[in-house]
């Protein structure tokens, strides 16, 4: 299992999801991607995106206006 990190702070929708999509294409099943985002709309987008793509949202939290999500590739 590999872990990846994406710094998408400062990007607006759909930038963070696009970055995540590109990384997930390269990841293997079971790999975990952590992404940090400042676009507040990302919170609801990531939940929907994970359901649609059958990836697992392991963690979603916010620290100092930065949204941090951990996603496991399904």
What proportion strand? 35-45%
Order of helices and strands: EHEHEE
Radius of gyration: 11 Å
Biggest sheet descriptor: 4 strands, mixed
Overall morphology: globular
Distance between the termini: 12 Å
Structural class: alpha+beta
* Overall pLDDT: 96
Return residue spans where pLDDT drops below 50 for at least 5 consecutive residues. Answer: none
The strand line-up of the biggest sheet is 1-2-4-3
Q: What is the tally of helical segments?
A: 2
What brief labels describe this structure?
32% helix; TusA-like; 74 residues; 4-stranded mixed sheet; single chain; alpha+beta; 4 strands; TusA-like_sf
Offer a concise description of the structure:
The chain has 2 helices and 4 strands; from the N terminus they run βαβαββ.
């Amino acid at each position: 299992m590999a872990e990846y990190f994406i710094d998408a702070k400062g990007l607006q929708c759909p930038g963070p999801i696009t970055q995540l999509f590109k990384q997930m294409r390269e990841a293997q099943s079971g790999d975990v991607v952590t992404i940090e985002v400042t676009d507040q709309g990302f919170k609801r987008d990531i939940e929907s995106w994970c359901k649609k793509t059958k990836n697992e949202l392991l963690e979603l939290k916010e620290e100092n206006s930065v949204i941090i999500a951990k996603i496991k590739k399904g």
